[in-house]
Amino acid sequence: MSKAFRELLKKIGSGNHTGENLTREEAAAATKMMLLAEATPAQIGAFMIAHRIKRPTGEELAGMLDAYEELGPKLQPKKGSNSSVKVLGIPYDGRSRTAPINSITALILTAAGVPVIQHGGDRMPTKEGIPLIEIWQGLGVDWTKLSLTETQQIFESTGLGFIYLPNHFPLAAGLVPYRDQIGKRPPFATMELIWCPYNGDAHIISGFVHPPTENMFRGALETRGFPQYLTTIKGLEGSCDLPRDRTAIIGIIKQNTELERLHLSHNDYGFSNINPPLFPTTNELINQIESVLKGEPSEMMQSAIWNGGFYLWHCGICPTMEAGIAVTKEIITNKNAAQKLEEIRGAIAALQLAYKT
């Protein structure tokens, strides 16, 4: 198969004058050959760096998603549930400058009855920032010990699921070392932001940094027939955490509709322009997150309310942004988000106890 892969590599790696984009089918084939290690290590590294230099097209991202859909894991809808699941796409290489808010947002949403799926792995090149998995571990929720079947049970009982690459998609985790070896994020890092490891009605909410990335997202989903509803957030460090130091730029793309652009200014809702910085240690970050869940005032609390207000409004729980902010304050003040965290901890503990006995 390495000979077949070589032809695809030649196509994207021939330079500006003779190089060509891959078709959706070719991109899917190349991705499968890399995931299954049918391409050689030299070919995989060469493909990743050549594709990064060329820049992927929407059609190529669609092919990558096809391969992930065929070979990757999926959580299943809860029986009898018609709820649209929110899949939060966040860079796998984590955060290094600003405090992550997304775990709090997930607790706020699930406390309000909105099911959420996150996905990612351990510390990852090139940023090696703090990943979601470490934050959840610090909060007493260890997704790394759960099989896909167990994760499905937790998702069904609590509304929150986490696809952990090393356990649930080891083929994809096997490509992670190449990121360190080539010293750059490959196009897979872009595709992962709109990957949907769920076999049901999904609403993908993805972070992005550069405007061309948003166009790639749209092109990929258009090619695939818009199987999901997409929201893009020009968020903190490429995440879907809304910033407070600038206007939040949001794109909303529903099936067969034009991009709807939304701009939200923190000033209009009484928030300051301070993004909480990343704390020096993970323990300090976890302590601050826990203080927010206890209802203790802080800049992180303000960011949690800012994000929670938007997401509750955007997900249809509240009719306006103002109402979303008010309900978020109630969820935090009444300890509903903290109770949801305890519920998830308890569900995992009960599951693990059942397996021991």
From TrEMBL:
Keywords: Amino-acid biosynthesis, Aromatic amino acid biosynthesis, Glycosyltransferase, Transferase. PANTHER family: ANTHRANILATE PHOSPHORIBOSYLTRANSFERASE, SLL1634 PROTEIN. One of its GO terms (molecular function) is glycosyltransferase activity. Residues 98-337 form the Glycosyl transferase family domain. It comes from Floridaenema evergladense BLCC-F167. SUPFAM superfamilies: Nucleoside phosphorylase/phosphoribosyltransferase catalytic domain, Nucleoside phosphorylase/phosphoribosyltransferase N-terminal domain. Residues 6-70 form the Glycosyl transferase family 3 N-terminal domain. This is Anthranilate phosphoribosyltransferase family protein. It comes from the Bacteria.
